[in-house]
Amino acid sequence: MRAWSFTEDYNTVYRASFEAIHAMGKVTYEDKKEGIIAGKAEGASIKVKLKKLNGKIHATVSARGLLRPKPDAAGGVLYEIHRQLEK
Predict the structure, then answer these.
(1) Candidates 3.30.530.50, 3.40.630.30, 3.40.50.2300, 3.50.50.60; correct CATH number of 2-86?
(2) pLDDT recorded at residue 42
(3) pTM of the entire structure?
(4) Residues 13-17: what's their mean pLDDT?
(5) Distance of CA 66 to the CA centre of its chain
(6) Integer Cα distance of 83 and 87 in angstroms
(7) Average pLDDT of 47-76?
């Protein structure tokens, strides 16, 4: 599991998270109201949870493959979110 805080607004981070999973694999579920995006990427099941706290957007990325945590895959998705926000 990896986590990061962003100063961008919620919609921007949500869109970047969706695009990150979409660019790396396949989005299988999304719920904008709850701030959840799930998908498959890098041989793992990925879940991104967004939450507004203290004026920032906190993103938690978890990845599991074959019932084991895949922190490298979660880190890769978080890196891709950062890259999407730089566009």
Answers:
(1) 3.30.530.50
(2) 85
(3) 0.92
(4) 97
(5) 20
(6) 7
(7) 95
The pLDDT, as a whole number, for residue 35 is: 97
Alpha-carbon distance of 18 to 68, in angstroms, equals 23
Contact 48, 61 (CB under 8 A): yes
Confidence of residue 77 (pLDDT cuts 50, 70, 90): very high
Phi, psi of 33 (to 5 degrees): -60, -40
Contact 20, 31 (CB under 8 A): no
Among residues 70, 7, 11, 33, the alpha carbon closest in space to that of 47 is found at: 70
Report residue 74: phi and psi, to 5°.
-60, -40
Distance CA 5, CA 65 (A): 25
CA dist 25 and 34 (Å) reads 22
Q: How far apart are CA 85 and CA 4, in angstroms?
A: 13
